[in-house]
Here is the input.
Amino acid sequence: MSGLLWAIIKTLCVILLAPLMAGWVKWLKCRLQNRRGAPPWQPYRDLLRLSRKNVVIAESASWIFRMAPYIVFSVTCLAVSTVPVVTVQLPVAALADVIALVGFLALGRFFLALAGMDVGTAFGGMGSSREVTISSLAEPALLMAFFTLAMNVSSTNLSTVIGELGRRDLTLYPSLIFAAMGLVLVAIAETGRIPIDNPSTHLELTMIHEAMILEYSGRHLLLMEWASMLKLTLFSLLIVNLIVPWGVALTLAPADLAFAALIVTGKLMLWGMMLAVSETIQAKMRLFRAPQYLGLAFILSMLGMMSHIVLEVR
Amino acid sequence: MNALYATLLLPLVGVFILAFAGHRRQAKTINLVLCTVTFATALLLALEVFRDGAILSTGKLLYVDGFNVYLILLNAFVGMTTAIFSGPYMEHEAAIGRVDAVRMRLYYSMYQGFLFTMLMALSTNNLGILWVSVEGATLATVLLVSLYRTHESIEAGWKYFIICGVGISQALFGTILVYFAAVKILPPGAEDGLLWTELHRHAADMDAGVLALAFVFLLVGYGTKVGLVPLHNWLPDAHSEGPTPMSAILSGLLLNIALYALVRFKMLVDPALGNHLAGNLMMGFGMLSFSVAGLLLHRQYDIKRMFSYSSIEHMGLMTFAFGIGGPLATFGGLLHMIVHSLTKSAIFITVGHASHIAGTQKMAQIRGLIKTQPFVGWGLMIGTVAIAGFPPFGVFTSEFLLFTATVKSYPWLAPPLVIGLAVAFTGLFRNLQPMVFGSPPADQQPVNANMWPVFIHLALVLWLGIAIPGVLAQWLNQATIMLAGRGVL
Amino acid sequence: MLIASLSLPEQGVLTLAALILLSSFLLLAQVRLDSLINTFALQGALIFLATVFMAFISGKYHLLISAALTLFLKVFFIPGQLRLLVVRLNIRREVEVIGNPMLVMLFAAGLVLFSYYVALPIRELSLLSTRNTITISLAVVLIGMLMVISRRKAVAQVIGFMSMENGLFFAAVVSTHGMPMVVELGIAFDVLVAVILFGVFFFHIRTEIGSLDTDRLNHLTEVDR
Here is the structure.
């Protein structure tokens, strides 16, 4: 029972800390661009403000539009619950399957895209179509990267994967190098960061995520925003824990857990810095080039799988 | 031994001499003298091998046995006769302003370079050097193909370079695989894992799977250079756009070298595999090339292109012969190598004169050669008769031997063989007749032509058709024994 | 043989092999000439490193000479020569449109699988720790060939051709610890001459047809025009 409790506490912690992650990246970015920037906890204030506002709904909106924020948010929470954060020894670890994770994300995206189209505005439809285009290219690459990891340790269970990788001696695995590169590229695309989408603008013809949620207000918008911050945190966690699996606690001992929490926080902060730097030094690419970018991600993941088969077995 | 070194060194020295003196008036004489002396030393070498058997140089880098000695001799001979032809031909080209002094130097220097790489490829014992030489032969000729710097010739040169380069790379991979198989069985640290003599001794011990794979790569690689369909695209272009002496030696000699390389490898692969895989592959590709080229002969408009397709057809035939692999077929294939080289280079020399007379290579505009310049007309006529396989020419003899072998081993392949020969025959003659006997344009003038090389070649082919001299028969028989296990004599 | 049981330099060779394959894929997708040449130089550098590693793993120090040759030819001379040509022909900024890049990529991936199956009998036989890289080297050769076929610009075709040569060299290094020295030198000489000839050809093609687009080399056909 205590295990289950731990799992719930872990998920709640991630959900509550997700805005901080988003704020951290934003603050760093401002600093790198010589601006003072809002403090990292600014997203909490924004969310609070949104919760106080009234909900305005378009006349043409159907129940899908109203349901979508709840579905998207809860599905993202479920996805978060499958990712090991500080320990791999949770009783719900059996649930932590990468295919389930990808499935949750796909479900959320499905409703998000539907909601974008529901009201019938031009922006929403455009955003949805772009989102679906990009994710249809990103998803195979993501799965390919996950499969490479899975083949390496003979399991699709995230806890097992992370535990196994953390336990191994230092070995150069070409496949893991490629999978990691592919994963990073996909993560950037999936979380709507530069160079695929620009998270800090609402008024650009090329925006994707913001175009879909343009019609939302009040608590609906709050849930949508929160879900996207959650997604950022989720992918960040995946990256830091899969690529640098050391530091994740292999037991449930409190000392280990505390140490792991410290390490994971450090890794997340570092990843946030890298993200901020990369967003500062490059510009958003034209939408038409997004397929090339994701093609590269796919090729990298595929090369990862191939080099596993060709070079590492037998 | 010294004759062998001289045969290789003379052309190499020639490369450098002619690189500086190629534009002078004496260049054609220097070229001819070099080729003649090379032929003389090759003759000495041949006598030496005939007297003492195979010779292996110190360091085991060079190896001459019954199989390659007659090809060396043939190479030197055709190199010499083509040099006789090339002098006046290139003077004519320079006179009408198609080539300048720099290109003349390039031409003569690379003429010798080409002969050197071919002789090196033939006489080396090291399969790696064999590859390097065959690739070197491509490099030496690639600028000659585009010598005229017209759009077409540059296109032909580029195609030749890229297709042959890419193709021959596959052969290098095959060679690496053979080396890999050899390293496994030879004592560790031995540097002779690529020496043909060593490999031939241990051929039966090498791993069959690796060698089968290697042979496929080698067939694709050297097959590109042989001009086997479907890797033949470069050949008609390269042969038709370069200067005619080049076409003569490309068609007459270079294709033989690539086939020689392939057959050498087949000799290694067969004992290791213990089956007829290599032979079957060669038979398949040979038959395909033979049939497709025969059909394509009918569609040609350019006289040199037509005879290039005829070369593809005959190379296909030889590949087929070595693929069958019995003593009779092998003997026929070896003989066909000689007669085809002699006949085809004679034809290209004649064609060179014919296109000078008509001022074009388009067959539709070449008319009435026999009236304007009877020797050229007769040369083209007899040459074509010979290459089409009429008795009593040598081509008939070798084709007959091959046909007999086919009927004996693969009777069901005899009808396609006969049909293919008939198709090729009609393809050649439908174009030949008006060119030789048609009515010439009013202003057509004879040119300064030296037809001696042509008639010497054709006379030799005739001789080989009527009676093969004992010395040659002995060599061919030796080579047949090496290739097929037993001779025909 | 599992990778974890190998020594660190051997793992390094395997990783380099994988990176060489990646560089082949990058060459295939690279549209800008200057980055194409840089990627080619990178591939040469990776092969140089792998050769040095192999020399120390196998204790066959003559491989160091081959490595030095590679460093000179594939990292400095050929890319340098190509850069010079590109500047002199004034095509540095030229961008090539690749027909269907994703399709070409997938085809290349198919070639990797093909080489995997082709190389299986060799892997069975070899006792070398790096035998698995033979597949990679064959794939590099075949992808180079694909590049020659799929590209239209003469420079890109030449780079494809040279990357085939890279694959062949790599194959020799990892499968048999290099060819005998005399053959290596001969091959290096051939490559050197080939590069110079390619340079000459660029100028010829350029003066004759006004661009380096080999699609325009289409005058020679079977039928009279």
